[in-house]
Amino acid sequence: MPDNRPAVTVLCEDRAHYRLVRGFLTRRGFDGRQIYPKQAPAGCGDAKAYVQKQYPVELQALRSGSVYCALVVVIDADNLSVAERKRFLESLLEPREKRKPEELVVHIVPKWQLENWLYYLDTRKVDEDRRLGYPEYTNHNSNPFAKRLHELCMSWNNGVPEDGVPPSLRDACHEWARFKSLL
Length: 183
Fold this sequence. Notes:
Blueprint: E1 8-12, H1 15-27, E2 35-39, H2 47-64, E3 70-74, H3 82-91, E4 105-108, H4 114-123, H5 142-157, H6 167-182
Parallel strand pairs: 1-2, 1-3, 3-4
């Protein structure tokens, strides 16, 4: 593995989440062969429920040290705020099991759906509260969007934030900065 970067499991709702995170991580220097998807099985019910059910399991696997060294959780906020969705994730854990500041665990929470981020990364404008999203960004090629997300987060984390960045995307950049600082 280059730079001794850890193996990463991406617990997510769907393939679109995984592809964007994988593209982002490879731009951050991670070996794509060391990024493992744990996505909700297609056609097996509520993808959000899958992530919620698996989160404590994957966190325990991370802590056991036997499976991988980092965990990225991607779950849409939907009708909740990003902070409320994060609190909900934490509520799935026993108090002593909560995410610790020194752990390589990242919560990425797009508002409503990932397509809103893609639209912003493409056009630099978006109505993040738009529930119906932007269907033209479904089944996208994640490479250009992962590159733009990486550039946005790098500029944000270097103290040059863009105006108009959707709050959920801004939060994701802060999560990535936390992740990077722990490596």
